Amino acid sequence: MPDPRPAAPRSKRGRLTRSADFERVFRKGRSFGNRHLVLHLFPRDDADAARDPRVGLSVSRRVGGAVERNLVKRLLREAVNEHVDRFPSVDLVLVARPDALGVAERDGLAGIADALRELVDKAAPVVPSPDAQS
Predict the structure, then answer these.
(1) How many whole angstroms from its chain centre is CA 64?
(2) Helix (H) or strand (E) segment spanning residue 121
(3) Three-class SS of residue 52?
(4) DSSP 3-state assignment of 103?
(5) In whole angstroms, how far apart are CA 88 and each of 15, 50, 105, 131?
(6) Residue 20: how many CB atoms within 10 A of its CB?
(7) Mean pLDDT rounded to a whole number for the chain
(8) φ/ψ of residue 2, rounded to 5
């Protein structure tokens, strides 16, 4: 029987926490969207560029109440862990649209993961490959 626990949480270093970091990604980065999510990304070129990507989540009250927003955030975190290695030295912000709740309730992790996979495939040509970083 598979372990029902989600993957280990990302370290604090792997998360976007400051408002200024979110603003920089929104203003200077690229964005890719679909009906359920918007993926904003900003390639880093600072001293931390060789480090893992940093991820931030934004799930507003338009998505639903606290319980619904937390469900969407949990599923997003789990789905992001599958794709995060494809984005070396990048700051990512995932914004959930109101339709994300419907997908989360109807299809669970599989639905959110599919929506995210679609965006990752759109964004892949824009992001430098890990081999180019070396």
Answers:
(1) 19
(2) helix 99-123
(3) coil
(4) helix
(5) 14, 7, 31, 10
(6) 8
(7) 83
(8) -70, 155
- Length of the chain equals 134
Q: For residue 55, what are its two tokens?
A: 């991820």
Range of the domain at 57: 12-125
| Alpha-carbon span 66 to 68, nearest angstrom | 6
Q: Residue 76 phi/psi, 5° resolution?
A: -65, -45
Q: Is the model's pLDDT at 35 over the cut of 60?
A: yes
pTM: 0.80
- The two three-digit tokens of residue 43, written as one number: 């390639």
Q: Is residue 131 part of a domain?
A: no
Token pair listed for 59: 């799930």
Pairing verdict, β 30-33 and 54-59? unpaired
CATH of the domain at 73: 3.30.230.10
Tell me the Ramachandran region of residue 115: left when phi exceeds 0, alpha when psi lies from -120 to 50, beta otherwise: alpha
Q: What share of the chain is helix, strand, coil (3-state, %, to 5)?
A: 50, 20, 30
Q: Write the pLDDT tens digit of every residue in 85-113.
A: 777 788 999 999 999 999 989 999 999 98
- For residue 87, is it within any domain? yes
